[in-house]
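task queued by scheduler; priority normal; single chain, no ligands, no partner chains; default sampling; output format set to structure tokens
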Amino acid sequence: MRQGAATTAANLTGGVFAAGVPQTNLLTALKAITNGGFRITVDGRETLPRGLNFAAATTLTQCGAIIAAAMQGATAVWNAGAGEFVFTSNTTGATSTISFCTAIGAPYGDVAATCLLRTADGGTLTQGTQAFGAQWVPCDGRLFQPNMPMTQTPHAGTSLGNGRDYVRNVGRHGGGWPTRRGSVGKVRIPYDPTRTWYVSISDHNGEANLSNPPTVMNPPAGVR
């Protein structure tokens, strides 16, 4: 069992501007741009946000909002804590992609260079990722190949260290009762009400086959 990875969106994180003079100079440089623009490719589609006018901006957060208003397929914000601009695709998954920015050229001011959004400006790209494939199922208490519903009662009292504890905590299986050397019947997937944990019910093809695999009648060493 392992925790399910979330499906994520692609991100472009620009170069860092330190607090103080670097950020003050950045704001001054942006305020001087009254017809800015840049190129960016989001989810395989190139767009050209342009006509950006930062003259009335008084904060870098406002500059981020001006850029965001001109974006297509992505959001843009100024991350004050980290001192950088962050662009995020509106989609998630393996097809969520984003590129660095480049200049459009005259007559547009170069927002890509000013905001450190180019390849050589110290920024990073993080492309979207997909959650686990179909072999992972939510831990919602379902039975794997059940043949009858299960009943479950919370454990109470003193643990006896035998099959009865298993029945109380997991529930009786439709195929039979637990035995001293194993469980006969079906398997109930653990329950997770938030569905943030996942269980695989298929073979992991990356596992190595054991030369002498344990069996019910031949358990691993030290197991009784």
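post-processing summary
- The longest strand covers residues 74-79.
- The first helix runs from residue 21 to 31.
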